[in-house]
Specification:
Strand content: under 5%
Largest sheet: none
Number of helices: 12
Shape: globular
Radius of gyration: 19 Å
Helix content: over 70%
């Protein structure tokens, strides 16, 4: 990856890593459905402003109409379905276990992507890198699992189902999303997701409780505008450059961010397991990407 792509990759990991803190704040007052509803609503509003303000983001209605089904699929399986599943599951399992389960996404993606995308093949460096990174997440987060691996298997299964949905949607987005600006792709996906979630909320949330605390509103705004609006512009921009498998490795970064935030702000200790786990995560990401970088240099030399 180029320097700007690496910067965006780590920035996405940082944004999504700090999102867990804001989610915990928000669910202290509102239900997971209301949280996800406002998150997607604020993201959609922010993206609509960006799209309208940027002439490069505008395309003809005919081009958008052809893609509405594709983005309805993405709004369902990359936003509404997994966000609701994970928000529900986090009420019953530890955040450390959630982070580990969420980090299985690259393992799903490497199996699914080659079936539909010819330039995202399974290679030995990819397999070694993905497994190394995943082991790093397990070592990093295992000490924070207090309720045990066998606690609430239904919630764990729901989380894995959400992760599988993410993996399939990432591959689908790479295959179907090309040709549209990243801002517009993000807007179409999140607005579709917001529509689905609010319809679901109106039928299931009785009464529909809205936030009252300023801190909750701040959390929802942060999650919507930074954690979704800007983050998904970066997501679509990077996805079409580096492919689904490497893009999915961003899920290895949030656990590392969480540990660092705990050390800096909560006076938590950085144990040897944390150091070893962090090194494995960094090594796994490097193994997958250094191979690609070597090929790019070789092609440049041949040219």
């Amino acid at each position: 990856m180029k320097t700007k792509d690496w910067t965006l990759f780590w920035l996405l990991g940082l944004i999504w890593g700090t999102s867990f803190l804001w989610i915990k704040i928000a669910v202290g007052e509102v239900s997971p459905i209301v949280l996800v509803g406002f998150r997607t609503l604020f993201a959609s509003v922010g993206l609509s402003i960006i799209v309208l303000a940027n002439e490069k983001s505008r395309v003809g209605w005919r081009d958008i109409r052809k893609r509405l089904f594709d983005f309805a699929v993405l709004g369902t399986f990359n936003i509404a379905f997994p966000w609701l599943l994970i928000s529900w599951a986090e009420q019953f399992i530890d955040s450390g276990l959630t982070a580990i389960l969420n980090s299985t996404m690259p393992l799903f993606t490497i199996l699914i992507a080659p079936i539909f995308i010819s330039d995202d093949r399974i290679t030995i460096p990819k397999v070694v890198g993905l497994i190394t990174g995943f082991l790093g997440v397990v070592i990093l987060m295992a000490p924070s699992i207090h309720s045990g691996w066998n606690n609430n298997l239904i919630a764990q299964a729901a989380t894995l189902l959400a992760v599988l949905s993410y993996a399939c949607a990432t591959v689908y987005a790479r295959k179907k999303g090309r040709g549209l600006p990243p801002q517009l792709q993000a807007f179409l996906q999140l607005s579709m997701g917001a529509t689905i979630i609010w319809i679901f909320a109106l039928f299931t949330e009785k009464p529909l409780v809205f936030p009252q605390q300023p801190l909750t509103w701040l959390a929802l705004l942060w999650l919507g505008l930074l954690g979704s609006c800007l983050a998904y512009i970066g997501y679509f921009s990077l996805l079409h450059k580096i492919g689904p498998t490497r893009m999915s490795m961003v899920t290895y970064i949030p656990p590392l961010v969480g540990i660092i935030l705990g050390v800096v702000f909560l006076d938590e200790q950085f144990h040897w397991q944390s150091i070893f786990g962090a090194l494995l995560i960094l090594s796994g990401i490097s193994i997958v990407n250094l191979r690609k970088k070597a090929k790019e240099h070789l092609k440049g030399a041949e040219g």
